[in-house]
Design brief:
By secondary structure, the protein is of the alpha/beta class. The chain has two domains: 202 residues, no CATH class; 69 residues. Helices cover 53% and strands 7% of the residues. The chain contains eleven helices and five strands; from the N terminus they run H-E-E-H-E-E-H-E-H-H-H-H-H-H-H-H. A five-stranded mixed sheet has the order 1-5-3-4-2, with helices on both faces. Strand 3 and strand 4 form a beta hairpin. Helix 1 packs across helix 6 and helix 2 packs across helix 3. The longest helix is centred in the last third of the chain and has 22 residues. It starts with 5 loop residues before the first helix and ends with a helix.
Length: 291
């Protein structure tokens, strides 16, 4: 498995400053594959890349050399890191695989052996490390970020610290500062995403209508349209801002233009862009007129 890039490793290290990283796993040991089972996620989990080029390369490597990076498991034999390696091992008929046990205490109940806090940090770590390890589409990254932010908002009271993962602090944290989680700039580097895009995702996660979020997650609407719908809903009927009634419908028009641009064949983008510039000029002039 390729090493974690330096800037991503730094971002992952930053997430551990808030106490939500997983404890260090134990020494590698061999374990019967038949005794293992996949961790059942509660809120968010990285998408499978089975069938992709990266998956085929990984399968060929395991077929030739076996599993070289141990799976990380809990003491009840749930696999919390190495889902694809586990599935490939099953497909290849391996009898034993290397594992490392992560020392997270389990509850006596078989029905729910993990506390909500431990589930949250397992799932958040899985998402962050998935982003560091493999290529995801832009939409997959956006949905992971959106779902993770929602999980942190809906999770246990202890998750209040985890929400700082996506805070609006800019710039790196000082080494002598109290734990706060990484800055938005650090998360932007981790997700390979502009800060402004993350801010829109945060707005959608924290204030967006459930149906709008679902449409965006399915890929039915773009982030621009989902964000515009959220901002419009926030501002509609606000008597403190007389411009809102004029501006918000035009924001939806702008979102539709962005969608059209994304779907437009490259040979037709020149005329489309020229029309968009003319629309933008008219929009700016009309806003100045009403303000």
């Amino acid at each position: 498995m390729p090493p974690v890039p330096g800037e991503v490793a730094g971002a992952l290290a930053a997430t551990r400053r808030d106490g939500l990283g997983l404890p260090a796993p134990g020494q590698p040991e061999m374990c019967a594959l038949a005794t293992l089972r996949l961790y059942p996620p509660r809120w968010v989990w990285p998408p499978s890349f089975e069938g992709a080029h990266e998956w085929r390369v990984l399968r060929e490597d395991i077929a030739a050399h076996g599993i070289r990076t141990p799976l990380r498991i809990l003491s009840n034999r749930w696999v919390i890191d190495g889902t694809q390696r586990y599935r490939i091992a099953l497909e290849l008929g391996l009898e034993t695989v290397p594992v490392q046990v992560v020392p997270i205490p389990l509850e006596p109940s078989d029905a729910e052996p993990l506390s909500p806090f431990d589930r949250l940090r397992i799932e958040r770590t899985a998402v962050l490390e998935a982003l560091a390890r493999r290529h995801l589409t832009r939409h997959q990254r956006d949905v992971l970020f959106l779902t993770l932010e929602a999980a942190q908002g809906l999770g246990p009271p202890e998750a209040g610290t985890a929400r700082r993962l996506a805070n609006l602090r800019r710039g790196p944290g000082r080494s002598d500062a109290p734990p706060t989680g990484p800055s938005l700039d650090e998360i932007a580097r981790l997700y390979d995403t502009p800060v402004r895009r993350l801010q829109k995702l945060l707005t959608l996660a924290r204030r967006g209508d459930g149906e709008v979020q679902a449409q965006f997650t399915r890929g039915a609407i773009s982030l621009e349209r989902a964000y515009a719908a959220t901002v419009t809903a926030d501002r509609s009927g606000d008597p403190r801002d007389p411009v809102v009634a004029y501006v918000t419908p035009r924001l939806d028009v702008l979102a539709r233009l962005v969608d059209c641009w994304a779907a437009c064949p490259s040979r037709e983008r020149g005329p489309f862009l020229a029309e968009f510039v003319r629309w933008r000029d008219r929009f700016e002039a009309s806003v100045e007129a009403v303000t």
